[in-house]
Amino acid sequence: MTKITNIPIKIQDPSTTKTFIDKFDTFLFDCDGVLWLGSHLLPLVVETLEYLKSVGKQLLFVTNNSTKSRTQYVKKFAGFGIHVTEDQVFTSGYASALYVRDFLKLIPGQDKVWIFGESGIKEELKLMGFESLGADDSRLDEPFDIATSPFLENGLDPQVKAVIAGLDTKVNYHRLAISLQYLLNPEIQFVATNIDSTFPQKGIILPGAGSAINSLAYASDRTPEACGKPNLNMLNAIVKAKGLDRSKCCMVGDRLNTDIKFGETGGLGGTLLVLTGIETEERALDVTLEHPAPKYYTSKLGNLYEYTH
Amino acid sequence: MTKITNIPIKIQDPSTTKTFIDKFDTFLFDCDGVLWLGSHLLPLVVETLEYLKSVGKQLLFVTNNSTKSRTQYVKKFAGFGIHVTEDQVFTSGYASALYVRDFLKLIPGQDKVWIFGESGIKEELKLMGFESLGADDSRLDEPFDIATSPFLENGLDPQVKAVIAGLDTKVNYHRLAISLQYLLNPEIQFVATNIDSTFPQKGIILPGAGSAINSLAYASDRTPEACGKPNLNMLNAIVKAKGLDRSKCCMVGDRLNTDIKFGETGGLGGTLLVLTGIETEERALDVTLEHPAPKYYTSKLGNLYEYTH
């Protein structure tokens, strides 16, 4: 375990808030647990985002949730009365599609992708011109039978060059079995949207993307390349797309092992942990944890508005 | 990797066969890949088993398949024209039920077990007087919804003291999510029938019990106690139940990392690898493998009959 020498600064009054805000020109926000909890908007979030915009800050949104596309995310924001544009939103599904195209060099219109996951990944791939298989195809909802699965009938699709796996609440043996058939071919790349072990929802802890992905990893004896936070592929893609100066950026999140690790290992100027998600003040201050401590922490994002008004 | 100094002996003629058979009074057989492949009986298996019985050998059957109960297994044998009784059959589901009762000391009629797996586990628990929840309950086939799941409606069942997880081709998010809720309580024991990563069926490789179990292990950050081969809990239970002299026993199987490891680390007098399942002669002779080599190997079980008649 690494000894952390910098004690996180608590933002709890107008003076610490002003100093904090002045240090950065771009804020990257995790969404669930920071802006909202599922379908419940957290207090003073709209006011805080409006305020930061009004003082000239750039706002970006970075989520490991791959079930929705960026277009669907923009709609979710709008439903809360927050106006954002698609180019402000980065999802792990989008990051995975970028990885497949820009790093693995798969060719749109020629190479295909098998998806274990929901529609968010498929939509991002489609926008890049990739054909995908699997995902929410309703034929995969049928019980698995080797003799009748339409995905085995004429053999596997030889144009599939990568498997992208993410959170899929429609997980079943059919989806796992066909995904495994592709993964048994070592020439087909194995990409994970993210490896979060859990997915907090409405006060309970549900299995996260990493849970089913680990199931595929164990059966195939392979390790996927994970594209979401804390993997720096995602941060590098954002920095490049927006031409960011890392030293002037602050990552705001509710998870130490994804959001804060992402900001700290990615060399951002700052990280702010909010306590409206899964972490506590005790954990924020626990200097013996294996992952980096945040530079700042505060009870809720809305404090940035509350202490300046 | 361990250097293996004993080269496996190939059974390939009457003389090696006779010497082999004479050394043992009990043979423990894995089933799938040894006696049959799915619903297809392998050649001379009935004749071999009849012959071994006729010369006074005790025959036991040890399988990691937890989807069927011992009663259902006896019927499967009967369908192939092989008469065996329930007390000759040991499944990983039965081993898990024994573990819960005899090692974890759960009390039948009082403590309950949550099952992630098929009916084989439930039936074995029921025979011991345990009430179980989960498994093939058709309400778990419904899509998961926190608000409507009948398994969350009145909270978790406080009488549940263990989760047993095994192969479940009805795996879905509902089953995974509720199993996880129980596993998040560290006082509830986590038991796995077996951790086979794959499940060969009709010439293709499907996800094994260990695949979904690993998904639960990752989400809950826990490691289950695995009861099937190669875990010695199962062997110890068999040795105790049948009063066996280990030096006079031979384990016959088609997998090096489960069957042969089970026999070798369990101190049995012999192990016989047959090549009708997943292993090859090359692997049988690969002395640099991390798991123990078999003492004997032969192309098929039926050779024991063929070379003596």
UniProtKB/TrEMBL annotation, chains A, B:
Q: Does the keyword Metal-binding apply?
A: yes
Q: Where along the chain is substrate bound?
A: K229
Q: Which Pfam families match?
A: Hydrolase_6, Hydrolase_like
Q: Indicate yes or no for the key word Lipoprotein.
A: no
Task: Give the required cofactors.
Answer: Mg(2+)
Q: Which SUPFAM superfamilies match?
A: HAD-like
Cofactor binding note of this UniProt entry: Divalent metal ions. Mg(2+) is the most effective.
Q: Which residues does the record give as Mg(2+) binding sites?
A: D30, D32, D254
Q: Which reaction does it catalyse?
A: 4-nitrophenyl phosphate + H2O = 4-nitrophenol + phosphate + H(+)
* Name of this protein: 4-nitrophenylphosphatase
Q: Which organism is it from?
A: Kluyveromyces dobzhanskii CBS 2104
